[in-house]
Amino acid sequence: MSELYKLSIKEKLLGLESSSFSSTELTQSYLDRIKKIDPEINSYITVTHEKALIQAKQSEKRYQKNLTLPLDGIPIAHKDIFCTEGILTTCGSKMLSEFVSPYSSTVAVKFEKSGSIVLGKTNMDEFAMGSSNETSFFGPVKNPWNKKFVPGGSSGGSAASVASGLASAATATDTGGSIRQPAALCGLTGIKPTYGRVSRYGMIAFASSLDQGGVLAKSAEDAAYMLKSMAGYDPQDSTSLNVEVPDYVAEIQKKIQGLRIGLPKEFFSRSFPKHVENSIKESLEVFEKLGAKILDIELPHLELALPIYYVIAPAECSANLSRYDGVKYGHRCENPKDLDDLYMRTREEGFGAEVKRRILIGTYALSAGYYDAYYLKAQKCRQLVANDFQKAFKSVDLILSPTAPDTSFEIGTKTSDPVEMYLQDIFTIPANLAGLPGISLPCGTHNNLPLGLQLVSNTLEESILLRAAHHFQLNTEWHKAWPFF
Ligand code: GLN
After folding, report:
1. Strand partners, 143
2. The one catalytic residue among 154, 164, 229, 318
3. Structural contact between residues 132 and 92, judged by C-beta atoms closer than 8 angstroms
4. Residue 292 and residue 150: Cα distance in Å, rounded?
5. pLDDT average, residue stretch 92-98
6. C-alpha angle with apex 349: 346 to 354, nearest 5 degrees?
7. Rg of the Cα trace of the chain?
8. DSSP secondary-structure letter at 148?
9. Beta bridge partners of 410
10. If you measure from the C-alpha of residue 177 to the centroid of ligand 1, how many angstroms do you get, rounded to a whole number?
11. Of the residues 163, 213, 255, 468, which has the fewest C-beta atoms closer than 10 A?
12. Is pTM, for the whole model, over 0.70?
C-alpha cells in the first residue's frame, strides 16, 4: 500500500474499480507523503487536506454506486495560477499572498467534474515569470533528483510534486516553456497544447497571446488521461477553440509507422553538450526503429524567437499586471497618503524584482514612439516564425529538438544574469509564438539529472505528440525512474 504513488493513472483507476484500495486510502497516502517529503521540496504553497478527504469520500460513494467519472479518485495538484473558489490562489506572489478566489477557473471546474481529487496548489515563479522557480514569494522549489538544483520553471512546483510522487499529475501553464522545461529538468512528460485548446478563464494572465494551460505527468499515457478532461471549448474564453476534443487515451494506441520527424538545421547547427547530443541521437534511433522517418528541415527565422518573445511577453504582462493597484484585490500598502502613493507603494511592495523588470521593459516597448519600433515589429516577426512552421509542416509531422540546453543547474547560479536565464527557453519559445502544441519527454540522464526531448506538431495535433511520446515510452525506461528518497 505504501507505493501507491508509483501506479500510473490507468492502474490507479483499475485499483479503485476493483476495490484494491479506496479513494480515501489513495488520497490519504498522498497526503501522508506530502507531509513527509514536501518540507524538503517546497512544491506546494497550499495543501487542501480537508477538502481532498471530503472529495475522496464522495468519490468512494460513486464507486459504490457504479456511477464513476473519468478520473474518479485520482489525486492531482493545480498550479497556483488557476483560480479555485474558496482556496488561496497566490500566483507565487506577495501581491496575491492572501487572495482567496471567489470563483473557479474552467480548468479547476473541469477537473472537479471529472472526479479527480485536488491535493493542493503548487509553487511557481512569481506570475509565471522564470525558468527556475527561484522568483516565488514562497521560496525556491528543489529538484527531487538533487535538492541543490532547480526544478525548472515557472511550473516548478507542479513538476517537483509529480516527480516526487506527491501528486499523480498536475496542471501547469506554458507561456514560453514553463511546462516543457520543468518537465525536462524533472524527468517528466509535459504537454503544452495548441493555443486555445485549454480554457484560460480563471487562469491568472501573464502574456495573454502566449499563455496556455497544460499538464505535467509521469508518462504520455497519464498526460492523455489528464488532457482529455482538461481540454475543450469554453464560451467564457474568447480565444477558446470551438473544436472537438479527441479521445487522447484511445488515440495514443495508434502506430507511428511512417511518421515524419524534422530536425531544424537552425537548432542542430548549434553545439550541444556531448550528453545532450548522445541522448538525442539514441532517441532518434528509437523513433527510426518504430518506423518513423527522420528529415532535415529549415526554420529560417528561429533565431528571432527569443528577442521577439522578450518584447511581446513583457509588453502583455505590463498591461495585464496593471490591475494590481491596491484598490480591487490583492496586497494594499498601509496608510497611503494619496492615490499615487497607494499605487506606487502597493506595487513596490507587492511585486518581486523579476516581475518589476518585465513591467519596466513592457511599458517601455508599448510607450508612444516605441510601440511601432518594438511591439509592432515583434508582432510582424512573430508571423515570420509562424509561417516557417507552416511551411515545415508540409513535409513533416513532428519537429524534434532538445527541450532545454542542458540538465538542471544549481540553485542561485543563474539568478544574477537574466539573459542566461532567458536562454533556458531557446528551444521552447518558438512553439508559443506560433501557438503550436509541444511536448517534452524524458530521454536520458547525466550525473543523475534528467534530460528531455521536445516534439512540436501542427495546430490541434496533440494526439500525434502524445502518440509519438507513448510509443517512445513503450520502448524506453527513462520515464519510469523515480528519484531516491
Ligand atoms: N521562462 C519564460 C519566462 O520567464 C517562460 C515562462 C512561462 O512559460 N510561463 O518568461
Report:
1. 146
2. 154
3. no
4. 34
5. 98
6. 115
7. 21
8. T
9. 149
10. 6
11. 255
12. yes
